[in-house]
Design brief:
This protein is an alpha+beta fold. The protein folds into 4 domains: 58 residues; 222 residues, FAD/NAD(P)-binding domain; 152 residues, D-Amino Acid Oxidase, Chain A, domain 2; 62 residues, no CATH class. It is 34% helix and 20% strand. α1 crosses α2 and α6 crosses α12. The longest helix has 20 residues. Bound molecules: flavin-adenine dinucleotide (FAD). The site of flavin-adenine dinucleotide (FAD) has 42 residues, from α5, β18 and α12.
């Protein structure tokens, strides 16, 4: 077929057409903004491989399309309205939604992940403590414990294949007064009942042997060897990436606004169009009850609980080894000190009830209170600079437990109330949802798992592992605080799930997340990002 049939007297040959199409596909100009970019590339390549006069024409077309693309972004988005028919829709790209999306895709379902924000991890999952919990202190016999332990095991089993890091910190629950000391045997007992049998009570001397910089006054502790720290962002990204490698689709900026049911299944309306699906899995975190409320009276009520944190400069991380936990009270697990996988130390979180489901603001007075608490545990803390602060909103409910409900008559599963342990439990929750589907629902799709499972190899961002900046050919370091290279930034944009907003780029690479918060590198980052982020990084002169 001659794509330029509108031009008279022109000979186009099939080879040129196929060559241009092939190179366009090979270059995989991401279908993002959108098919248009593919089109531009096609015209450019076509022109290049054909005669000189056609080349001129192609370039003109490409420039016009590019111009249109920039002037009418909104129009273009509307041009690519969502109009899908799938087996399973997962609502919400938090860590839980990402794991469920992966699980159902690997089962062989035709899946679609819909996320309201500009990237995965736009809700609770972007701001946690990043601890991979053993479940030693979880309620015995609970679904939460079951999912945490299954998630923990699966993470350890798959992480090397996905190049996901693990910092084997261990944890110590520290008693600072007699009342807390008296609670330690109960903590050990519960841990053993939960199957975490390597947990043991240790003396104050043992605590100081492991943590010599802790303040005076420690009376004893509980040692938990299996508590680790992971990368809270690469892990869920790996789950989504693996799903995409097996045909799963996703949409960002795609809030689900309505859900109706007819004999063909569910029709979900979103800000980008509609989608038909047989099964809906609601993983909308702090909006979970609202999503269920689109078609039924929800079985739970979300009551967001904020946790604020301080991030200390990398030098501080040398002052502790383990995760330093307080003895929990009936209402809170309390404030911890912990190294991060990125080489910093964090202090937090608080536990503050609020009604707003989206705003996670930090508060100066609260942060000062945290610093005071932290310095009481670790007196050297005052020597170090705070490089960042953040807050996350736990999707808590009116009850403590996970709120996972299945409605087989309506082909709907609601995964709610994944409060404080979702990063650990996500893979276990996904397995549990698969069990619910297999045991209680009629067969909604043919579950044909892939003959061979593919494993994404994620970029290594751990400060405790070799990084790209030490390797040749990396294009130079762009972010000097976090040692992020040009090659890492380019790789993020060419990955299977590229960032579409600056937050997504930061979480994929750590760029602009260091001491200077992007003051030094944002100009170069803007140049590398080009128009690939929905909110261009505006860097320039103040006139
Ligand atoms: C302060 C704090 C510390 C924590 N520490 C740890 C820890 O150390 N270890 C651990 O294992 N866990 C920890 N957690 C818990 C963990 O982060 C949460 O359990 C987990 O993030 C909850 O994930 P989720 O996917 O259920 O919710 P979310 O991450 O909130 O995901 C829900 C997603 O749904 C999207 N959404 C909402 N409405 C719609 C809609 N209408 N259409 C489409 N999308 C929608 C949202 O934008 C969001 O991205 C912590 C949490 C907090 C807040």
């Amino acid at each position: 077929m001659n794509p330029f049939f509108i031009i008279p007297h022109h000979k186009t040959d099939k080879t040129t057409f196929l060559m241009a199409a092939y190179i366009t596909v090979v270059f995989r100009v991401k279908i993002n903004l959108l098919i248009i970019r593919q089109l531009i590339s096609f015209f450019v390549f076509y022109g290049f491989f054909s005669s000189v006069d056609l080349c001129g024409f192609s370039v003109v077309i490409a420039v016009l399309v590019w111009f249109y693309c920039h002037m009418f972004r909104g129009e273009i988005t509307r041009m690519t309205q969502l109009n899908e028919n799938v087996d399973v829709v997962v609502i919400g790209g938090g860590v839980v939604g990402c794991a469920v999306f992966r699980r159902f895709t690997l089962m062989g379902a035709k899946t679609l992940l819909l996320e309201r924000g500009g990237d995965i991890l736009s809700g609770a999952s972007k701001a946690n403590s990043a601890i991979l919990h053993t479940g030693f202190d979880a309620p015995t016999g609970s679904l939460e414990l079951q999912c945490m332990q299954a998630g923990y095991e699966e993470y350890l089993a798959i992480r090397e294949k996905m190049n996901l890091p693990l910092l084997q910190t261990t944890a110590i629950v520290v008693a600072w007064n007699e009342e807390q000391l008296a609670a330690l045997p109960g903590i050990v007992k519960q841990a053993h009942e939960n199957g975490v049998t390597d947990v043991e009570q240790i003396s104050a001397a043992d605590v100081y042997l492991r943590e010599p910089k802790l303040a005076e006054g420690v009376l004893g502790g509980v040692f938990v060897p299996g508590e680790y720290v992971i990368d809270p962002w690469s892990a869920p990204l790996a789950y989504v990436t693996q799903a995409v490698m097996h045909g799963g689709k996703y949409r960002f900026n795609c809030e689900v606004t309505n859900a109706t049911q007819d004999e063909q299944g569910w029709l979900l309306n979103t800000r980008q169009g509609s989608v038909r699906t047989r099964l809906v899995i609601n993983c909308a975190g702090n909006h979970g009850d609202l999503i269920d409320g689109l078609w039924r009276t929800p079985d739970y009520e979300i009551r967001p609980r904020k946790g604020q944190f301080l991030v200390y400069d990398k030098a501080a991380a040398a002052d502790i080894n383990a995760i330093i936990l307080p003895v929990p009270t009936a209402t809170t697990k309390g404030v911890l000190l912990c190294r991060t996988i990125f080489g910093n130390m964090i202090l937090g979180p608080t536990a503050e009830e609020q009604t707003d489901r989206d705003r996670a603001d930090v508060d100066e007075a609260v942060l000062k209170g945290l610093i005071e608490k932290g310095s009481q545990m670790l007196p050297t803390l005052g020597q170090y600079t705070v490089t960042a602060t953040y807050a996350g909103l736990r999707p808590a409910t009116e009850k403590k437990e996970y709120r996972i409900y299945h409605y087989p008559q309506d082909n709907w599963v609601s995964v709610g109330g994944i409060r404080s342990t979702g990063l650990t439990a996500a893979l276990g929750i996904a397995a549990h949802v698969e069990d619910l589907y297999r045991n209680h629902f009629s067969e909604l799709f043919s579950a044909q798992p892939p003959a061979e499972v593919q494993w994404p190899v994620m970029p290594m961002l751990s400060d405790y592992q070799p990084r790209d900046y030490a390797c040749s050919g990396n294009g130079g370091i762009i972010c000097h605080c976090e040692l992020v290279t040009r090659r890492e930034l380019e790789a993020a944009f060419h990955s299977a799930v590229p960032p579409e907003c600056i937050g997504g780029l930061r979480r994929r690479t750590r760029v602009m997340m260091g001491r200077c918060n992007g003051f030094f590198c944002s100009n170069q980052v803007a140049e590398i990002a080009g128009d690939r982020l929905d909110n261009t990084l505006v860097v320039g002169r103040v006139e």
